[in-house]
Amino acid sequence: MFSFFHKKPRFTVKLKEYESDKIICGLWTEVHKKSIQKDILAVQQKFQQEHSKIVQLSNPSGTMVISQCADSEGTFSYFIGDFVDSKEQDESMFVELLPCGTYAHVTVDFKDPSELTLAVAKAKKYFFERWLPSTNYRVKENVESIELYDRRSNIKLASMELIFPLEEN
Asked: Most buried of 60, 81, 117, 124 (most Cβ within 10 A)?
């Protein structure tokens, strides 16, 4: 029987199996809860300035943001980078790997960039409170979330994906 009270979840979680490591080249910074916007904006601007140093961008390319879990004082590590095809990069850049394995992808759609923060918070809440407990998975340690901004879209920031590295319980 159809019910108005059982709404379909707004978010869909898709499991993807990475057959090989994904290489990302970019910059790390420490972010403090008292200066979160300033710290993130500073590393994003530096990344844009240094972007020309990145060689062998992957096709399709996407900008990745990795946030590690915050410590007791609210400080966490933040990475911004692009997919590349080679680990050989300028010494001023960091090269990170998304190792092969199982990843959960949650697409976050929004109409206006000002809606992004709330949309991401709702997607994370759905993932951690509803989807994850109903599975045999847990998120790998020390990763709060990974965000993928796909550069193929002609619409600036129309959607992004939250990515969570998983392991079986």
From this structure: 81
